[in-house]
Amino acid sequence: MQTPTNLFKQSLLARQAQIGLWLGLANPLSAELCAWAGFDWLLIDGEHAPNTLPSILAQAQAIASVPGNQVLARLPVGDPVLVKQYLDLGVQSLLIPMVESGVQAHAMVQAARYPQADGQGGVRGMAGARGSRWGHIANYAQEANAQVCVLVQVETALGLENLEAICATPGIDGIFIGPADLSASLGFPGQTEHPQVLAQIEDAIARILRAGKAPGILTTNETLAQRYLDLGVLFICVGLDTNLLMQHTRALAARFKGQTAPHKPSGMGY
N or C of the chain: less Cβ packing under 10 Å? Predict the structure, then answer.
């Protein structure tokens, strides 16, 4: 048995745009339901959703039961111990929040890689966990590094200032711009579509592409999503399970109660 190929990472390397959905309900049934929708990838959120390692595992297993889906997971913080634990669960693509320097980015790459004889590996601890199919993948320790996808989230003014250093870090596969926290850091909290925020985002996308890395972002504005795709974004989240549930249940209730449809939830905080 060989280590499973990370098709999400493979698509990024081939410069193929991938469309995704954010999962914050922390439930394997809703995760499986969303997996049947037809997205390229689904991200299990460990930062702003009430997830634990067991709940992330249950959702990853549910998503994997539906062909054609790639699982990503966002850590609550860039902690090497958590990087190791998420990888041991079998999640191959990790999103690390609040990365603001090349030093931080390098530390995350090191945490995601096993040591190698040539000295090109990292510091990931050895374990025969689910990632290795409980030891059934004989060469997992030699093959795993190539299939791990490390995505870092740049979402502050300082992160933008150090963007070139972050992009230049070997082993970083993609940089995800976090619009909500970035808007706050730039002085426009919650205003993810403020002209100055949008200008910074578009500039960041161009800088990431020039560095040869894959840019990513989240927006529920479909017009803006297409704009970002046209600019070259290679992985984009176009919806959140929590927002979709809130938006459509409120609208349904409003229609039958003869009320004006409520405003669309903003998704702020993601």
Answer: N
Domain 7-256 sits in CATH at 3.20.20.60
Residue with tokens 């320790």: 141
Candidate list 48, 106, 194, 248, residue with the active-site label = 48
Phi, psi of 152 (to 5 degrees): -115, 145
Q: How many CB atoms lie within 10 A of CB 181?
A: 21
pLDDT digits (tens, 9 = 90+) for 69-92: 999 999 999 999 999 999 999 999
167 to each of 99, 122, 213, 223, 240, how far by Cα in Å? 11, 18, 7, 27, 27
- Both structure tokens of 181: 């926290």
What does the pLDDT average to over 37-65? Answer: 98
Active site residue 48: yes
What span, in angstroms and rounded, lies between the C-alpha atoms of 195 and 224? 12
pLDDT of res. 265? 56
Per-residue pLDDT at 120: 79
pLDDT in the model for residue 269? 45
Q: Give the 3-state secondary structure of residue 269.
A: coil
18 φ, ψ to 5°?
-120, 130
Cα separation, 195 vs 200, whole angstroms: 9
Compute the C-alpha angle 163/164/166, nearest 5°: 65
233-252 pLDDT, tens digit each? 999 999 999 999 999 999 99
